[in-house]
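Subject: two folds for Thursday's group meeting

Dear M.,

Sorry for the delay on this. The cluster queue was jammed most of the week, so I only got both jobs back this morning. I'm pasting them in the order they finished. Each block is the input sequence followed by the predicted C-alpha cells. Could you check whether the formatting survives your parser before we put anything on slides? The first protein is the one we discussed after the seminar.
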Amino acid sequence: MSKAFETFYQSVEKGMALQTAMVLFEWDNETLAPKEAEPYTTRMIGSLSEQYREIMTSEEMKKLAAACREEGGLSGPEAAIVREVEEEIEKLDCIPPREYRDFAELTARAAGIWAEAKREKDFQKFAPVLGEIVNYQKKFASYRAKEGQKLYDVLLDSYEKGFNMETLDAFFGELKEELVPLLHEAAERSGNVDTSFLSAEYPLTAQEDAARFLAEYVGFDFGKGVLAVSAHPFTTNLHNHDVRITTHYGQRIDSSIFSVIHETGHALYELGIRDDLTQTPVGQGTSMGMHECQSRFFENIIGRSRAFWEPVYDTIAEIFGAPLNQVPLDTFLAAVNQTVPGLIRTEADELSYALHVMVRYEIEKMLIEGDTSIEELPEIWNKKYEEYLGVRPQNDAEGILQDIHWSQGSFGYFPSYALGSAFGAQFYFHMKKEMDIDSLLREGKLDVIRNYLKEHIHQYGKLKTSRELLKEVTGEDFSPKYYIAYLKEKYGKKER
C-alpha cells in the first residue's frame, strides 16, 4: 500500500463509518424502532448524511484521490476504491449541502408515512411526500446529467451501469411481446390448482421456525446475520460479517417462505464478498441488477424446483403441521408455481413478474421525463394492470402503495428486478453445462452451487460490472433470450 493511498483510505474510512451508522438507523426504523422515535431519529440521519457528504466532497478527499492516481502503483482493489470514491464525489459535489440533508430527512420520515397510508389504503396520505421526493430526484438528476443525458437515464445508471432507457425499452418490449401471450396460455392451462392449504391457520412460531430453517438451509450464516420482521422484506449489511434480512408473515405461508429464500440470496452475495474489500466503497454487490440476479436465482430457479424441495419438504411440512403435512409434494409445487396474474409484485408467479416491473418502469419514466401529476398515479397504475395482467386493484394498498421503494427515493431501481431475473437465467444455462444442478439439489448439496457463485460473482464486490461478470462467466454479453427460453421451457405447452 502506497503512502498516498494509506492517507487517502483513512479519510475514506471515516465516510464509510458514517454510512454504516446510517444503515443501522435505517434497519432499526424498519424493524424495531418505536413509532414516536421517527422525528428524532430523522434529525440524526440528516446530520449523519450531511457529515458524510462533507467528508466525501471535501477538498482534502479530492486531493488525496488525485494523489493516488498520480503516484500510481495501485493494486486492483485500491484502484477500484479510488474510482468509486471519485464517482461518489462527482455524484454528491453537485448537490447543495442543505438540499442533500433535507432529502435524507425527507426519505427517513417518508417510509413511516407510506406504511401508514398503506395500512389505511389511502394514497392521498402519501401523495404530498411522494411529490416532494419526485421533485428532489428530478432536481438531483439535473445536477448530475451530462450534456444531452435524460434525467431518468441518470437515475437508472445509479443502479445498473450501462442500461439506459434505450436498452430497457428494447428489453421490456421483447418481454412484453413474448410473455403476454405465454402468460394467458399458461393461466388457462393451470386450471383450478388447490392453494387453500397455503392460507390455513398456521402458528406464528411455526412460520418463524420454517423461515429460520430455510434461510440456514440455503446458506444464511446466523453467526454473521440476523432475521427480523418488517412491512416489506429487505436485506441490508454493515459488512460481510453483519448481514441482515427480514421477512413478513401474512395470510399465505408461501409469501414468507419465498421472501426468506429471496432475501437469503441477497445475503449470500454480501456474505461472500472478500475480506479485503468489505467496509470499502467496493465492498458490496456490483449493481442492483446483479443483486436481484442472486436473490431471484435462489428464490425461483432453485427455490421453486422440485429438486430443491425433495430433501426438505417433509421437514417443512412437519414444522407447519396440518394441513401442510397432509399435502403431497406435487400438490405443493403446483400451488407455488401456479400461473395466476395477480396484483402483488412480491407474490407474483415467475411468468407475470416482469410485467409487474414493467408497469413501474413505465410510470417512473412518466414521472421523471414527463409531466404526469402525482394525483393521476393510482388510475394510471390500475389501467396498466388491466392492460398487461388483466386485473384491477380494488384499493390503493394492493395497487400504487404496495412497494416501499419510492418512499426511499429509489427511482430507477425497479428495472433491476427484471434484469436480475434475466441475468440469473443466463448464468443458469451456463452453469448447467458445468454441473448437474438438479442432482446437487436432490442431494442437498447447495454448497457446491453457493461456492460456484461466490468464486465467480460474490467475492469481487464492485471490482467488476454486471456486464463484465456475464461475459467472463458465460462468454456472452447480456442477452434476454435465456430468460425467455427459461420461462418458455418451464411454462410453455408441454408435448405429450
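Second protein, same layout:
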Amino acid sequence: MTTSAPADHANLLVHAYLDGELDPAHALEVERQLARDPVLAAEHAQLEGLQRLIRELPLESAPQGLTRRIEAAIGMPQAARWASHPSYHPSWRALAASVVLAAFLASGSTWFALRPGPTATVADMVVANHLRALMAPQPADVASSDQHTVKPWFDGRIPESPRVIDLSQQGFPLVGGRIDVIGRVPVPTLVYRRRQHLISLSSVPSSGSAILEAVPRAIAGYNIVSWTDDGLTYWAVSDVAPADLHSFAQDFRAVGH
C-alpha cells in the first residue's frame, strides 16, 4: 500500500467512510487514498457489496430454532438474551447481518463465499468503480479524446493495452481512460460521454471467446450492458437510458471489427 497510514488503520477508515461517520476532511482523504491504492479500492468495493447484500436480506422473522443458533454463533448469553430490551425481537435481517458482519471481520474471504455468483460480483465491482470515478476530481487518469493518446498510456501499467475505439461520429466521444480493480486485478477502463452522461467501459479477461448477446440490466440505478469478445468480457456502465447504452455497445462492437 502506498498510503502513509498502516493498512489496518486505512481499512478502518474505509469502514467509517462507508458508514458516513467521517467528517468532510477525513472523507476527502479516504477518497484520495481509494483513488491511488487499487488494493484499498478493492476492499472498498467488497464492503459496498456486503452492505448491499445485507440490505437485500428478507425482513421475515427467523424460525425460533434458527434464532437460537444465530444467538449462539454470535456469543449472546442465553440469560441476557434481550434483558435490556425485553420487548424487542430482532428480524431475520438483523440477526443475519450480525452473523455476516462477524464472519466478515474474522475473515476477508467471507464476501467471496457469500456472493450471489461471479457475474454478479463483477457487476457490483464495475458499478462501484464507476461511482468512485464520478466522485473523483476527474473520471479518467488520462484525459484525452484521442485514441492514439489513450491507448499508449496503458502500456507498462497493465499487461495488455485495451482496444480503444473512436465513437465520436456515433455520438459517444472518448473522454479518456483509467485503471480499475475487479477482484483485486487491475483492468483497463475507457470513459466515453453521451451528452452530459459518462459511460465506463471495462474489459475483464475471460475464459471464453464467443460473443454473447448484450443484455442491459440495472444495479443501484445504473444500467449495465455486458458482452464477451476475443477472450475479454466488456462491461459498460452508465446512467444513460438503456437504449443509449445498448446502442453504445453495438457501435463499439461494430466499429471494432
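Two things I noticed about the second structure. Residues 45 and 125 are 6 Å apart (CA to CA). The chain is about 45% helix and 20% strand.

Cheers,
T.
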